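User: I'm curious what two different proteins look like when written out as structure tokens. Can you demonstrate?

Assistant: Sure. I'll show them one after the other, since each token string lines up with its own sequence. Here's the first protein:
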Amino acid sequence: MLKDLYKYPNEAGTDEAGRGCLAGPVTAAAIILPEGFTNGILNDSKQLSELKREGLRPILEKEAVCFSVCHVFQDEIDEINILNASFLAMHRALDAMEKVPSFILVDGNRFKPYPSIAHECIIKGDGKYMSIAAASILAKTYRDEYMAKIHEEFPMYNWKKNKGYPTKEHREAIKEFGLTKYHRKSFRQLPEQLTLDI
């Protein structure tokens, strides 16, 4: 059962999507839900079908006190590493919010402190707290939308389906066609045993 507010009114939940992908951005969302907000479907985005996530997105956008979504793209990921890029995406999403949160709930066990606002890291928080679950839905749906858009440019990688994750199909396409401008060059794109026979 997802909980409502954790400690304070106007607390923000934040979460990211796309951390383990080979291509595309890491995307974070931050959201403040109104006091007393309830939704029977809302849960960790990974527990919901794509259809349910897409259905929840406009409800969350309409009902939220405020929200923001931010992409950190592959070049920056390669420059600062994926962990720092995840923190940066969450910080930028918080920066862009119309209202300053009183407290920040973060999904996971690590976070770079945000200036002047206390936070708490909650492991599997997207399955425990509504604001984190809501942030996970927004991060996932906005990132999926972006991956579907760049899929049109490079359909051979099938990002519309795999969203840039390291599926067998995605890795086979990398072997055949090489890397694109959207791939994260700092990631090990192919397992070491997949060497080319020359």
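Here's a second, unrelated protein for contrast:
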Amino acid sequence: MNDITDLIEPLVAFRRDIHAHPELGFCEHRTAGRIAEQLRALGLEVHEGIGRTGVVGVLRNGTSGRSIGLRADMDALPIEEQTNLPWASKTPGTFHGCGHDGHVAMLLGAAQQLTRSRNFDGTVHFFFQPAEEGQGGAREMVQEGLFERFPCERVFGLHNWPDLPAGTIATRPGPIMGAADKFEILLEGRGGHAAIPQDTPDAILAAATLVTQLNAIISRRIAPTASAVLSITQIHGGHTHNVIPAEVRIGGTVRTFDEQVQDRIEASIREIAAGVALANGLSASVDYQRYYPATINDAQAAQEALDAAATVGVAQLAPDPAFTSEDFAFMLKACKGAYIWLGQAKPEGGAPLHNPHYDFNDDVLGLGIRLHVALVERHLAI
């Protein structure tokens, strides 16, 4: 039973309902409730409240002890939607601008199809994860014993990808998404009159020097063969034209794929901040946080994903990883698996992820369902 035509229309309606009622990370109560309701209607074993608002559905078939996990994220973004679509967000300032509503619909569709086809031998765990957008919902699920309670030989995460045309599925062995770090540097002096600069350490001037030196870290302290990004995104200091401020704050982000490169960059930031502060008669403190690790695909799992993709669409080996981050990385640290990109771009184009004009392309729902099913049927072959 491979025909899923009858599933699409109800899933489009479900997806658009979720889109119209978006919820931020760890607040996905309505979304989680609707998912649990759908899973129970299929007769699945359902577990709620994992990682606060996460939901897990369990489907068993046959006698094999083998198992696989499939993950969809549920949360929305704190962005004001500007699509003017009939199913646009009804919640001001909250919007499914990353397509997680589509991910939920595709995984529910896979659960529906696998429940009725039963063309596998083993256990499928459907992971509906909260708080992917910067809050580490996957980390919380793992820390609460996700893979001890629901053991998996493989775990796969699927994300829509507007940079690829609809019908294309891509992944790669090794790094596929970057580690995400954030930092804030506080330069402190005592402040003083702007007309008497010789009597006051100038935190503004020191900040300008610091920004210049930080932007040279990648080109001068990291090997040209390595990949990394450092971006200064915030500078805050001063409140009027005739006062040299007592402090200036500088913030930014670092993206890497290798922990040694990550270590080198963090150490360089701390060293440069201390040196600039010393040279300018200031003190410096650095708050450096590594909030998402790099998403690293298991080579065998990535190949399994490409093999499954080739049976349902156009499979493509992704040539390069992306510097954006993904907390599915925490699941891949606990279980072998792969993160997969599902192309969704229409010929006429469309908005990128995290853009107020973005909307998930419902035309790829069927492909996402078939890919999930293919992953299960290949790994848990009868």
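A detail about the second structure: The mean pLDDT is 97.
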